[in-house]
Amino acid sequence: MKNYFEILRKCPLFNSIEDERLAAMLGCLAAKERRYKKGDTIFAEGEAAKYLGIVLSGNVKIVRVDYYGSRSILASIEASQIFGEAFVCAGLQSMPVHVIASEETAVLLLDAQRVTRCCSKACSFHRQIIFNLLTVMAKKNLIFHQKIEITSKRTTREKLMTYLLLQAKDAESSTFTIPYDRQELADYLGVERSGLSAEISKLRKEHVLACNRSTFTLLVDKVK
Fold it and tell me: What is the predicted pLDDT for the residue at 224?
């Protein structure tokens, strides 16, 4: 576990927690490390919502599958970020989504009951953890509203450009790498992959953007 302390220090759940207390805290939270191969399910829809997770390495996707089997990617979670916290804090009896490893991934699972409730030992770090958790959830709520802004656009082109412009703003650069391949990006935007690929081709021909796999460059003078 100590091999991942550098990652855990970057995790917003542990903000303002001293290094020397981190190991003891993980024991109190019943932390356990798990490893998954690409495509493995970490949490399945319908499972009991008992844990929240921290990505130690790799990447996971939060995926919703509707009645007809259509897949929508809700979020991409990278190293040092947490997942599952909204469901356990909402008191849901079961997971409404799938959490899937999109590459070889290591995660740390924390007992949700121990995270959200002070233990019998009254460990002083619990108040800080709960405060940090509220901060994380507030920031993710902002991200959720950002996705609504993207997916509410009428056309595939508008959805794509809104997403790419927001990514460029976050990266503070016209060149940036997104956490999705083409199919995953289509699932995130809620569009057909064929339509998305066609729009990307058009935008390249119009010299609005350049791209290589998941790395995009916005040609600023063309998108003003």
Answer: 46
CA atoms of 207 and 137, how far apart (whole Å):
38
Burial 38-58 (b: 16+ CB within 10 A, else e): eeeebbeeeeebebbbbbbbb
Strand segments, DSSP code E, in 59-207 are 59-65, 71-78, 82-83, 98-101, 105-111, 175-177
What is the end-to-end Cα distance of the chain in Å, rounded? 48
Q: By the 8 A CB rule, do 181 and 59 touch?
A: no
Q: Is the dihedral of CA 195, 201, 202, 203 positive or negative?
A: positive
Structure tokens at 215: 């790395």
> Cβ neighbours of residue 95 under 8 Å, at least 6 residues apart?
43, 44, 45, 46, 47, 48, 49, 84, 87
Q: What is the reported pTM? A: 0.80
Tell whether the model's pLDDT for residue 18 goes beyond 60: yes
Higher pLDDT, 208 or 125: 208
* Mean pLDDT of all residues in 163-183: 94
On whether the CB atoms of residues 53 and 99 are closer than 8 A, the answer is yes
Q: How far is CA 95 from the centre of its chain?
A: 16
> What is the β-pairing status of strands 175-177 and 82-83?
unpaired
The pLDDT of residue 17: 85
